[in-house]
């Protein structure tokens, strides 16, 4: 070691030229003659060179950095110069010509009116306008769609002797008629206007540019009554699905629709009714008369019809039981209904009811769906005993494949409800026999299925209620620990099969629920079962899984339950058919979101008063109805029907209000509004229609607000 | 700036400025390396290696630049890259001319120094500093002791040997593992 260090020192001295000539020669000769010294020398040289590299590299990096910096400085300097030049050229050349955006004629404007309110007086109106100003110009990418909310007082033929204006204010929207435009009004009316639809009646020329469109919607009973609207067509009573008033103008010119052009109007409705037609309104004296337009029949469109179930009694072409093929839909309907009940009554094994401790009349409520392929799916049953519902499920699943129901030519899923009734009869003879033998087991029961005609299958008398109850979908998601797990009816079927095969078993109750998922589930081809981290696995390879709780899987499915119309008992309380229907209506309202809403779609070739109505066929005895009322002073009296959306006007003739003919025993509300000397008086009477009514109004003075409030209370009557 | 000017910079010890000028040649070298399948990072390494070899040659008194810097760096780079790729066949080696052989040998030689450099970088910060001060700055042990806060120049000297020894040991192991490969 000592020698080595000395050697190194020597080498260092040699390299630094610190050695005397003598020692240098000695060093060089030693280098040649002493191989050990030579190795040390060479090794040291390598090391010194390696060390040098570090220094050289540092210098290279330095050089490289300054090279790149210089380069960038040059490049950026140059680009700034170029940019400057470009800006100069641009300002010089283009300054004078401003680029104007050109409207894109093919694009569709969608204008949503969302803020229109009825204003008290003119002062408020101006305030409202200024408030709306920031919203008044909504710019879309290329063109401007502006709407201003203003108050427009539309012209009525009716009551004009007073200057009180309690009518609804129109929604005004500016549209460019060179574009196709869709307008969604405040209360859901959708107007589809194709470009170039309007003409100027004075010149006969197609209107271009921006026009004003005034739309007033009358869906609420209060709005309808305020406007003194009623639903009568040449003396015949109508049920309304919504009324609107449309007016188009450009400047001071009132515009009309072109001869061959029409305006598509979608009336929103929570429950669609068949037979809706389009009527145009005209004021005669104080009342409006609706006349049927001779346009094509109104079609009822379902939004996203393919995914909406169409009930059996509504669907255009009913699903058909094999052997029931017929041209006539009604015959097919009857045949299918009969065939299904016959099939069920024949296959239903009444023995299952034995030994369940049941007696008397038994009712099983079943429902199933006939899907787009005609398969029977989504079987659900409810009965007094699970064995009964199991049996019902079994029998229904035996139903043959049908041809699917069609709605507007497209196959749709059709729900079908099927109550099964039978009676468990106690066999008295047998009983007595056994009583003598066995004392305790005294009652022996035998069941007999009451004849097929006692199996009541009345789909037309069923109503559907949508609820967001948690069903199979949520259950599967809970077990799968995946709130977005894709569950289709096929998978539900599979799941149920697995349950039958005991591949899936539920253990425990309530807080301690767990599922055993057996090994084969995870080993199947294309299996959707996965072993999760927190699963416990048995020795046999089966998985024990604790399902998620309800909070982790949101309720997404709407379960449709079929409620028999006449079998209503809400809780323990008996309710009237009407009330029951309103409840159904209410429930449908809350559970069906707007996106599920159905529209009555129609095309109109005229502007003005438009009504989506159907005739009410008199099913009851019709009577003449006249009211003699004192102190009327030209009050307008309208009759509002509770059971359907209809309003009858009255004509004041010879000191009596003549409603002409009405159905007998209809529950109605008589609404009277009197306007005298700038004051409003109001009263309502709830009554049943009868011959020679003896009624009188007690008019109360009200402000417009109070009247509105009062009338809004009635809104629930209309749905 | 001509090659002569750059040579002047080297002679005056303004190595970093000279390198800066030489970096103008880099884009063309990068093109070469990339045409032979190297990446941009490869090209940077190769060019740096070529510059180190050039610098080493310039420091030995008997080196004469026979061609332009570009030609020289180009051929060095080519050999460095071939060596990295181990793509030179025996046939190609035999066909090399005298100058190329010279360059190739330098490249091979440089690899040894590279190992030494890596060994040096492995010995720890303090040892590096000590050896740098001694060999580059040619500082006396007395000064080194002052700068690095050793108690005496003897300790500094002792430390220097230890560091050197450590570096050489690392170098030897590296060399062995390289040769085994």
State the order of secondary-structure elements of chain B, H for helix, E for strand: HHHHHHHHHH
Tell me the fraction of residues in β-strands of chain A, as a range.
25-35%
Characterize the main sheet of chain A: 8 strands, antiparallel
Oligomerization state: heterodimer
Number of helices of chain A: 13
Q: Low-confidence stretches of chain A at least 5 residues in length (pLDDT < 50)?
A: 97-164, 296-306, 427-461, 564-575, 584-597
CATH topology of the largest domain in chain B: the name is: Rna Polymerase Sigma Factor, Chain: A
* Rg measurement of chain A, Å: 42 Å
Low-confidence stretches of chain B: none
Protein model, in words:
Chain A is an alpha+beta fold and 719 residues long. In chain A, a hairpin with a 2-residue loop joins strand 10 and strand 11 (253-254). Mean pLDDT of chain A is 71; it is low at 97-164, 296-306, 427-461, 564-575 and 584-597. Chain B is 77% helix and 0% strand. Chain B is built from 10 helices and no strands. The chains are: A alpha+beta (719), B mainly alpha (181). At the A-B interface, helix 3 of A face helix 2, helix 4, helix 7, helix 8 and helix 10 of B.
Short description:
The complex is a heterodimer of chains A (719) and B (181). Chain A is an alpha+beta fold and 719 residues long. Helix content of chain A is 28%, strand content 29%.
Labels describing this entry:
heterodimer, A: 719 residues, alpha+beta, eight-stranded antiparallel sheet, six-stranded mixed sheet, 38 strands, 28% helix, 29% strand, B: 181 residues, mainly alpha, Rna Polymerase Sigma Factor, Chain: A, 2 domains, 10 helices, 77% helix
């Amino acid at each position: 070691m000592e020698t080595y260090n000395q050697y190194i020192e020597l080498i260092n001295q040699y390299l630094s030229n610190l050695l005397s000539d003598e020692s240098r020669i000695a060093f060089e000769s030693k280098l040649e003659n002493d191989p050990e010294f030579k190795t040390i020398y060479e090794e040291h040289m390598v090391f010194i060179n390696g060390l040098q590299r570090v220094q050289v590299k540092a210098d290279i990096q330095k050089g490289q950095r300054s090279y790149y910096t210089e380069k960038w400085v040059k490049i950026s300097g140059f680009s700034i110069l170029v940019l400057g030049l470009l800006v100069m050229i641009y300002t010089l050349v283009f300054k004078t010509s401003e680029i104007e955006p050109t409207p894109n004629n093919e694009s569709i404007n969608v204008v949503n009116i969302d803020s229109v309110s009825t204003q008290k007086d003119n002062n408020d109106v101006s305030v409202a306008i200024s408030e709306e100003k920031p919203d008044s110009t909504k710019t879309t990418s290329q063109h401007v769609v502006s709407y201003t909310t203003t108050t427009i007082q539309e012209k009525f033929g009716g009551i004009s002797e007073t200057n009180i204006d309690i009518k609804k204010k129109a929604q005004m929207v500016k549209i460019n008629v060179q574009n196709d435009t869709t307008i969604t009004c405040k209360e859901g009316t959708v107007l589809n206007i194709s470009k170039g639809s309007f003409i100027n009646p004075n010149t006969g020329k197609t209107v271009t540019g921006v026009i004003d469109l005034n739309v007033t919607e009358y869906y609420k009973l209060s709005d309808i009554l305020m406007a003194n609207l009623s639903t009568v067509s040449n003396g015949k009573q109508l049920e309304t699905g919504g009324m609107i008033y449309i007016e188009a103008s450009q400047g001071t010119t009132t515009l009309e629709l072109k001869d061959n052009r029409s305006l598509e109007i979608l009336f929103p409705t929570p429950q669609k009714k068949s037979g809706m037609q389009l009527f145009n309104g005209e004021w005669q004296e104080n009342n409006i008369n609706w006349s049927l337009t001779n346009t094509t029949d109104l079609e009822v469109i379902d939004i996203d019809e393919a995914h909406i179930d169409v009930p059996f009694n509504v669907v255009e072409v009913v699903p058909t039981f094999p052997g029931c093929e017929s041209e006539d839909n009604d015959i097919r309907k009857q045949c299918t209904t009969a065939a299904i009940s016959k099939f069920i009554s024949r296959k239903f094994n009444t023995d299952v009811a034995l030994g369940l401790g049941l007696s008397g009349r038994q009712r099983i409520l079943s429902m199933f769906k006939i899907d787009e392929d005609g398969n029977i799916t989504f079987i659900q049953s409810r009965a007094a005993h699970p064995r009964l519902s199991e049996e019902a499920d079994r029998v229904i699943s035996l139903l043959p494949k049908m041809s699917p129901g069609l709605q507007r030519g497209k196959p749709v899923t059709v729900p079908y409800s099927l109550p099964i009734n039978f009676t468990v009869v106690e066999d008295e003879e047998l009983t007595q026999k056994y009583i003598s033998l066995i004392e305790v087991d005294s009652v022996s029961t035998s069941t007999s299925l009451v004849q097929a005609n006692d199996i009541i299958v009345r789909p037309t008398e069923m109503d559907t209620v949508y609820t967001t109850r948690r069903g199979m979908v949520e259950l599967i998601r809970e077990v799968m620990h995946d709130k977005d797990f894709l569950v289709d009816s096929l998978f539900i079927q599979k799941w149920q099969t697995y349950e039958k095969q005991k591949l899936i078993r539920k253990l425990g109750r309530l807080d301690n629920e767990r599922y055993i998922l057996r090994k084969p589930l995870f080993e199947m081809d294309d299996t959707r079962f996965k072993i999760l981290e927190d699963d416990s696995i048995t020795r046999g390879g089966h998985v024990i899984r604790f399902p998620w709780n309800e909070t982790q899987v949101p309720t997404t499915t709407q379960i449709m339950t079929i409620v028999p119309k006449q079998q209503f008992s809400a809780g323990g309380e008996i309710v009237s058919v009407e009330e029951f229907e309103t409840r159904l209506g209410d429930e449908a309202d809350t559970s069906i979101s707007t996106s599920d809403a159905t529209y009555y779609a129609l095309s109109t070739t005229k502007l003005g008063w438009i009504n989506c109505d159907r005739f009410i066929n008199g099913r009851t005895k019709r009577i003449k109805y006249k009211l003699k009322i004192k102190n009327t002073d030209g009050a307008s009296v309208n009759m509002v029907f509770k059971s359907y959306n209809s309003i009858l006007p009255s004509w004041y003739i010879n000191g009596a209000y003549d409603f002409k003919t009405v159905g007998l025993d209809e529950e109605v509300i008589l609404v009277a509004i009197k306007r005298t000397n700038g004051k409003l008086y109001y009263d309502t009477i709830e009554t049943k229609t009868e011959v020679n009514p003896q009624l009188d109004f007690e008019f109360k003075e009200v402000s417009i607000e109070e009247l509105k409030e009062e009338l809004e209370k009635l809104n629930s009557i209309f749905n | 700036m001509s090659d002569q000017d750059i040579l002047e910079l080297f002679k005056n010890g303004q190595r970093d400025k000279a390198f800066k000028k030489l970096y103008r040649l880099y884009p063309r070298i990068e093109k070469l390396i990339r045409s032979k399948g190297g990446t941009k990072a490869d090209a940077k390494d190769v060019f740096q290696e070529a510059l180190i070899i050039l610098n080493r040659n310039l420091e030995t008194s008997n080196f004469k630049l026979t061609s332009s810097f570009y030609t020289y760096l180009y051929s060095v780079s080519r050999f460095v890259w071939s060596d990295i790729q181990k793509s030179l066949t025996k046939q190609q080696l035999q066909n090399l001319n005298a100058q190329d052989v010279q360059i190739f040998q330098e490249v091979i030689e440089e690899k040894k120094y590279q190992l030494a450099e890596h060994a040096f970088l492995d010995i720890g910060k303090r040892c590096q500093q000590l050896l740098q001060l001694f060999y580059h700055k040619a500082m006396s042990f007395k000064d080194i002791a002052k700068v690095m806060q050793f108690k005496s120049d003897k300790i500094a000297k002792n430390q220097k040997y230890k560091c050197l020894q450590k570096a050489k040991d690392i170098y030897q192991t590296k060399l062995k593992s390289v040769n085994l490969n």
